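COURSE: Structural Biology Practicum
ASSIGNMENT: Worksheet 4, Part C
STUDENT ID: 0417
INSTRUCTIONS: Below are two proteins. For each, the amino acid sequence is given first, followed by its structure token string. Answer the questions at the end about the second protein only.

PROTEIN I
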Amino acid sequence: MKVDIDMGTQSGGKAAMLDLEELLATRLLVQGNSGSGKSHLLRRLLEQSAPWVQQCVIDPEGDFVTLAEKYGHVVVDAERTEAELTRIAARIRQHRVSVVLNLEGLDVEQQMRCAAAFLGGLFDAERDHWYPVLVVVDEAQLFAPAVAGEVSDEARKLSLGAMTNLMCRGRKRGLAGVIATQRLAKLAKNVAAEASNFLMGRTFLDIDMARAADLLGMDRRQSEMFRDLARGHFVALGPAMSRRPLPVTIGAVETNARSTSPKLTPLPDAPDDARDLIFTPSPEEARQPIMVRRPPPPPPTSTADILAQLAQHRPEPPQPAEPLLPLIAEAEHAQMIDEVMREILADPDAAFRSVAVLYQDFLVRCRIRRVPGEPLTLAAFRRRFAVARAGVDMTTAGSDVWQQALDLSATLPDDIQGVFLVIAQAALAGAPCPSDATIARIYGSHSPSRARRLIAYCEERGLFVTRLDFRGRRIVASPDLGCETAPGDPNGPVDLVQAARPAAE
């Protein structure tokens, strides 16, 4: 059955009709700054459609409770538990009663939780009760915010999920969402995008005007017109009203909101005893107890949350065990490890063996020398072997710049750390840059081209900057360490001392 309701007049004086059946299938988005006439538009829509379709109004300010006087809406005060609101919503769909959910007096988080429970009850109703319902949500940016605010993540997720179900999946269940917002930029995009009908009112911010123009298919330059719209004037677009942007003036309403716009009223003549009237309490005030406004109690923790907290409980970590080696023997233990490292580095073939083979050799040598304590892990050996190969002196090893070099090397793959540390050591000491053959031997290769690729890799990571002097000698600078090597011949022979330099004692 086709039902057209009168929303007001068009620019030429013709009645602006809205196809109610098409609206139920395609949903509606109303946008306008405060004072643009959004609530007036929603009231006109509710009054005109009240005889034809069941209505549920999510009212955060209590403005629409006056519909009960003339049109028989039942006012549901939200000061109930979430379970009660869910059951009430199910009975509303069963008995097809138009209602106004009054959220006045609740803070924002409580309003979001109540609205989510109520919309969830409408959405989860039994299939036999899926009759058409016009669900009007005023100030929708409160219930479907684009970004997280001061409310808890749980409340935001509940409310946003309920609004998404209403706009995205509600049509098959007979729920037709009509949402109104002051700011399109504050409304979640996945909620706003599901509406096919739009009524755009007065808007001043550029970001909101641009989004409104995009939704209406208008040019960005035409968006300036939204600043000039008068109160109660909107631009309509959608299959329920017009296939092209249509200026509409909303008609009069039969009921009034409890809150009205402020009107200028002349001040009364100032009484002579104005000071006494302000600072002297009346006898009635003296008898009244002082009321202390307390914040609303937090919502009770659900059983599911308590079980989740218990499941996430972790016992206190055990106390660290006493070190196997006495503190006085730590220096001796480190010295024995260094001696084993020097023996391995002294082997000419060590540069061409894999780290796994060198690690096994290291473990055997430690057992031969009876090195006490737990042996190094493979990762610790690889790291220590790379540092030992760099062979820094004690002064450099204790400096902050060498610690910075160690931190930088940790960002590289394990097989490249030794190459980086050897070049960094040369830069810190001002020594000539190692040749390609030396770098290749440190890496465990005979290919000079592999050495050049290693330097290029470090340069791509921003660790090195390479240049050549007038004689073709290579200079490698480290921006992070603030130093550079002396010129060195990249085509020079292998420097066996540099390629197998042991760690300093």
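PROTEIN II
(use this one for the questions)
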Amino acid sequence: MTATAAPDLDRTVDDVARRAADAFDELSRTAPAVRAEGLRAAAAALADHADELVAIAQEETGLAEARLRGELKRTGVQLRLFANVVADGAYLDVRLDEADPDFVLGPRPDLRRSLWPVGPVLNFAASNFPFAFSVAGGDTAAALAAGCPVIVKAHPGHPLLSERVAELVSAALTGAGLPEATLQLVTSQDAGIALVEHPAVRAAAFTGSQRVGQLLAARTAARPDPIPFFGELGSVNPVLVSPEALRERSGDLLAGYVASVSGSAGQLCTKPGFLLVPVGTEYDDVVVTAAAQVPEHRLLNPSIADGYERRVGQVLGVDGVRVVHDGGFRRDADGQAWVTPTFVAVPLDLLRSAGPVLLDEVFGPFSVIVEYPDGTDLGAAVAELFPGNLTLTLHLGSGETEGEWASLVARLGRHAGRILLGGWPTGVAVTPAMQHGGPWPATTTDGTSVGTAAIGRFLRGVAFQDAPQELLPPPLRDENPWDVPRTVAPRGESSLW
């Protein structure tokens, strides 16, 4: 089940890929009810071993127990949610066109279309969500639900946890009747890169840095047979605040901002990296008071600490950047770092002129307050400075739902996958309507990695024309043995058009 950096890497990679391809032949024909039961069994296995898994995760990541227990619960919910999606069958989008010799554009053949799993999926686990975006996280759940075996490249930040989760989930899946090698784990970087280019792998998913994501995307595109690649790469999630919103509730709003930036030491893809407020806003006292109450928190690993220390130093080195609250940063002999949040302030013009040194993401508990002058076109500012994000948040005052503000909301939709009207972007609901993806550089392709629509990344359409019943896949046969929803275009309907 587990592949490590064996002396003969090519043989190891070929074996993992071959096992995945063999599993796909069986898994893709498995009835939805069986796949759904496998996903539920995986969720139950994780819940049954919660104490063990949370203890390992705490030791490896430094994240708080409450956060990890909540994340593990979320992971189980994701698996069960996709089990319901599979059992329902609507995700197959089955469409039947009855043969029609009198069709308005000429005789129409019998056409039957549904969505098929793409094949084995390679999933690169994330560091900051050791459950929800790792071995059994959303990408794995969506791919398994689609009928695709999954090869997970474990993240080096939580290796023991990855191994244990893979053992539990793999056993649960096979115990429920799914084929061997439905889920496999590789741990070496070389194996992960080699699998990106292996012909048996038919899609890949990644959550991590823009630099690594671009490298992997380039490799998938350069294959003799390019494959879909969904990469979640980076987002600064700007928050825009109207003058009226500040007049009505500045204290609560600013305290909420500090809490959103500081949660889990700011190591969240939806952390608000920028808060845009009108010039003249008095925010220092509230921000400093709230930030001073945030307890010290360990960063995930020394590599994250290195990147955080470097980026904070770069931002603080820009002339004109004012420190509102100077957070702490200390390291131990092993290179682990403990931090408290830092907040700085800049005028909008400086943000424009400084460019990437200020605009690029700082992964950790750090955020920039941007003061915009009266009359600023916030829509144009977003388009210029923040063209692609997972989220954009707009705080408005009472009665500001028409005119220029309504126009701004429509414009913001071009630059993010999720638009919040109030509230804070951290905390991504695992629900059917969630969109967790956005324009570049938030993600490499249009899609979502959270919510039931995430299954669509690992499906492709196939149509059959004038096929005998016995040669059709189950959801396309007249008797519909899987009992899935279907859309039917009946013979003769075009005469009514």
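ANSWER KEY EXCERPT:
Q1: DSSP finds 15 helices and 20 strands in the chain.
Q2: The first strand starts at residue 2 and ends at 3.
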